[in-house]
Task: inverse folding
């Protein structure tokens, strides 16, 4: 037996009819038996609570005390380290899952002492333990689960991993193309308007400030008045008889005589001299301005129109500065440019998509060919196991159909078809298989899978109901063979199944101080003989049943 992963220890306290129960579990095949009503469902309920089932305060035995369930898992071979880390959990080869219900009714969950929510608890539990009953076989009817089974046998894992990466890229690129095309539609709708807006900016020279343009316009608009005013000023300043310039020069000449009399007089002279120099500069500037000022109606009209366009754009775009208009112009240029560039981007992405499609088609063809090769293998193994379990006329057919589109794991649609009786039509499992038949189909599949990969601990909850004799023997034998590669726990009513186990626990009730409790006992060989004899005949003391029990165990 390999060093398999297992549920090593189960502890339940203050749950339903259980006061306190601690069980050490082993590798291989373990069976749990007990009379109807002894508490097997309670045991499974406690286990399910730890695995993420919704807490029910009514199942707490003593409402004044805490109820808890601990599961200790030994993890050697399951590849779950990265899965733990993806959930921000510390990985430990000895992992403890704990679920508590405190007296207030609040529920708490822990993985290796780290508090977790129910969603995380359920995800981790799903990787560590697998519970099956006649009412929990819904996975087997799902196409995705059936595909996974086929791929495991076909050894498609590397191809599927490569396909998945490319399929993710395919979806990303396709989404990008869809968004670009949607953007192109919106951009094209705005394109003409944006070009119209942009054309309104083209007649404006943004190198000139609006103040400069306004000054040029004002000079042209007032050129006649400016000329008259400048002539008047020059006459006042330069009149030969009494112009200010003449008079100031006379003052300067008079003051010059007093320069050597007093320092104060010299300062006054220098100030007058500065005024004369400044006045000469002013006269020069006025003459220059007068020379360039001329009435130019054409230029005046050009500047007027330019100002009107700027003011109009200010009003239209609700701004008051040329810098703001420049930003708006640059934004419009980008939008118009995007219209031209978006087609290039779409074509580039479509080229990528073509390449990815070629890769996906190649991979999906390889995946499909590998699946087709193992379909007869799986079909034959399934029919043999199902016939061993009493389904003698079983037909199990796997139908693989090409899909026109890329799917999550290739281009195949898959259906497990089944018929249990001669002459009965083949059909999908969910339409043709009963609960009991689904249980045996699931057992057969799990038995096959256990030879191909490391599976978590599996618990079968009375999936053998309604069978007996050689069929029961076959079911027990299949479970025992599975247990060579993994931990198998079976809750059963069948003595033939119980006898095949390496370890045998019995669930029973005790009454102390008028209080009923459910307990669990690991049976010795002698106790197993008695238990199996009672399961065979209802009377453990019957000699024939006792002898048959020993025979089954040996």
Result:
């Amino acid at each position: 037996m390999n060093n398999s992963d297992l549920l090593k220890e189960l502890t339940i306290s203050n749950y339903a009819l259980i006061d306190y129960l601690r069980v050490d579990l082993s590798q291989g095949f373990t069976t749990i038996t007990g009379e109807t009503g002894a508490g097997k469902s309670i045991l499974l309920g406690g286990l399910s609570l730890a695995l993420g089932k919704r807490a029910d305060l009514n199942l707490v035995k003593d409402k004044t005390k805490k109820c808890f369930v601990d599961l200790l898992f030994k993890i050697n071979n399951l590849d779950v380290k990265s899965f733990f880390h993806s959930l921000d959990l510390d990985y430990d080869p000895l992992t403890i899952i704990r679920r508590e219900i405190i007296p207030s009714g609040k529920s708490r969950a822990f993985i290796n002492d780290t508090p977790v929510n129910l969603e995380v608890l359920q995800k981790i539990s799903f990787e560590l333990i697998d519970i099956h009953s006649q009412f929990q076989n819904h996975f087997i009817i799902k196409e995705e689960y059936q595909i996974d089974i086929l791929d495991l046998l076909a050894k498609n894992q590397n191809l599927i991993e490569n396909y998945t990466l490319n399929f993710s890229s395919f979806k990303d690129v396709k989404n990008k193309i869809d968004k670009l095309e949607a953007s192109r539609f919106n951009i094209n709708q705005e394109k003409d308007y944006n070009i119209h807006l942009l054309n309104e900016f083209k007649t404006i020279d943004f190198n000139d400030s609006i103040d400069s343009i306004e000054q040029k316009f004002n000079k042209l608009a007032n050129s006649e008045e400016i000329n008259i005013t400048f002539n008047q000023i020059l006459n006042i300043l330069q009149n030969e008889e009494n112009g200010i310039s003449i008079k100031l020069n006379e003052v300067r000449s008079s003051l010059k005589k007093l320069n050597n009399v007093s320092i104060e007089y010299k300062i006054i002279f220098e100030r007058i001299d500065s005024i004369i120099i400044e006045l000469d500069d002013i006269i020069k500037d006025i003459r220059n301005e007068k020379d360039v000022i001329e009435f130019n109606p054409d230029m005046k009209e050009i500047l007027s129109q330019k100002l009107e366009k700027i003011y109009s754009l200010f009003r239209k775009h609700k701004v008051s500065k040329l810098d703001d208009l420049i930003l708006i112009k640059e934004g419009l240029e980008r939008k118009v440019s995007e219209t031209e560039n978006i087609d290039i981007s779409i074509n580039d992405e479509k080229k990528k998509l073509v390449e990815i499609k070629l890769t996906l088609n190649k991979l999906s063809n390889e995946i499909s060919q590998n699946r087709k090769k193992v379909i007869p293998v799986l079909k034959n193994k399934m029919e043999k196991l199902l016939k061993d379990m009493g389904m003698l006329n079983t037909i199990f057919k796997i139908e693989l159909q090409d899909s026109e589109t890329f799917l999550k794991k290739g281009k195949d649609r898959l259906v497990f078809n089944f018929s249990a009786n001669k002459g009965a039509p083949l059909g999908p499992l969910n339409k043709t298989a009963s609960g009991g038949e689904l249980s045996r189909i699931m057992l057969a599949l799990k038995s096959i899978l256990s030879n191909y990969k490391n599976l978590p601990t599996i618990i079968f909850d009375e999936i053998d109901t309604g069978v007996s004799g050689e069929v029961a023997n076959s079911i027990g034998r299949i479970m025992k063979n599975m247990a060579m590669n993994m931990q198998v726990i079976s809750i059963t009513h069948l003595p033939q199944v119980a006898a095949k186990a390496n370890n045998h626990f019995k669930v029973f009730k005790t009454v102390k101080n008028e209080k009923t409790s459910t307990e669990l006992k690991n049976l010795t060989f002698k106790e197993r003989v008695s238990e199996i004899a009672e399961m065979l005949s209802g009377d453990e003391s019957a000699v024939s049943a006792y002898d048959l029990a020993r025979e089954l165990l040996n």
